[in-house]
Amino acid sequence: MGARTRTTMEPLRIDQVKSIVPQGKDSYEIYQFPEGTLCSSDGELEAAISAQGIDTLKKIDRSALLSQVAPWGFIPGQLHFVIVPPDQDEEDTLESLPFSVRRWTYFRRTPAKAPSSEAQASEFDLAQRSEAHRIYCGRPYQRSTPPSLLDETLCQLRCNLDSIIPDPKDIQCFASLRAYACENLTEDERRETFTNILERGNITPVRAKRGFIGASRYHDDGDLRVHCLDVDVIYYVQVIKREIGNTSGDPYVEAIHYWIENVREFFCSRSCENNQVERLNFPAVLVLHLGPFLAIAAAVYGDDPIVELLCCIPLHIHDTHDSQLQAGERALAALRVALHSLRDRYSNIVDERVPRADFPFRDYYKDSDHNVHSFTYERDIDKKRVFRVIDKNGTPLCVKFSKRFAPALRAVNKVHDWIMIVMEDKTAQYSNTMWDVKHRKDAPEKGKGKGKEKAKPAVSMEAALEQVRTKLGVLHDGGFVHGDLRDVNVLLRNDDAPADCPDILLIDWDWAGVAGKVVYPRGINTQLRRPDGALAAEEIKAEHDVWMVNNLLE
To answer: Which domain of life is it from (predicted)?
Structure first.
């Protein structure tokens, strides 16, 4: 690998970036890693770069002062700079690690510790500051593709929390849970009673027993296990606390680490380089019972741990608060269905699942005639819920998972509470966005595209802008709005593409809808330049689209 790191910095006599470049490497490019990136040896360099992504790093001018680019100083054991040859392709310099190696990287960089100690605020804060040790669990980091898209049982669990109709035993079980949860009990009494109620109500397929993780001294408050590929795998773990304040650490984080340490035990027991193992993402349900509260989370392990909190139910609500009571009853019903499903599926889960562990579970779509078309995942696009796939005929497609409206190109399928949009992959005909053309002079080519002929747009930026205005007028005349007409969402036809292809394509229709009815989503990025009033839950207006188009060339 043509890159080098200097992880322990001695005092420098020259306060310039170029002073850290080894002799004979004057033409190398220098990139800076974020503060707090742990890397204790050169052997961890490749894994750290793979986890971060070279394109996300800040390129440093070699004439800059070190005191300016790193005013916090240099800390032993942290990765500060990476030096990359200027004329080497990305695939040669920063070749992606094999999936089996990436999966083990988290454990190699994160030694096993007691889950209760990992849950301490100071330990958790330190881990979350480093991408090498971070857990994507919503505090504050999360993956765009949640666990509920990576396993069908977890997807159904999330959907059922809002839609399942509880049976009488679920309702009776929730009533029993509420009756006891409001009492002042010791932690042992609370754990025993909670476990008994879930077992009697058939929420858990069998009684959850306290168990140790492998040969370690770490034991949880109860778990359920199943034999998978000759190893015991946890598919349910519970953490019980006497009261919500009776703990020095976060029970959510503690439950996560009980599950993670079981995954570590699996990888220590088996080789990761196995097609079956590459399809196994260890789906599990985590349950927290803290005094009068019940919380449910979902966890999977793709190439790193990802956890999603699904609900938190108060058990000490008033008897007349019907909506909260119904939410609690649905939670127990959804939990019951999920746990029985995981127990039944795990025995042959790696044979039934086809996609790799870090891809969504759904690998087919149905067309308007209900014909089933299977496809194979190739890769994700920019770490979003958009994936390049190949169908059984070799046709390249894009598959997008959304929660809002999107136009049907090939197919739109409901996947529990997700919408799966299948569209043709137009990359070969539309290689540039308006943003690419605007910034081509500012962003030198590098990596795989360096030294290769770049496709040229068939139209000028001015002509493209006029066509955007025309298409927007048609959209508005039909009573619709787009909501996100940025330069990155306007594709330009390549000059070597067929002339009958449209000169431009407007993409990313997630926010589009009927004018006067559709609003901006909660997660709108307010750091981007947008018109006044373009805020979460505010109405998307036609004048907002016009403002965005008027600023496309800025």
So the answer is: Eukaryota
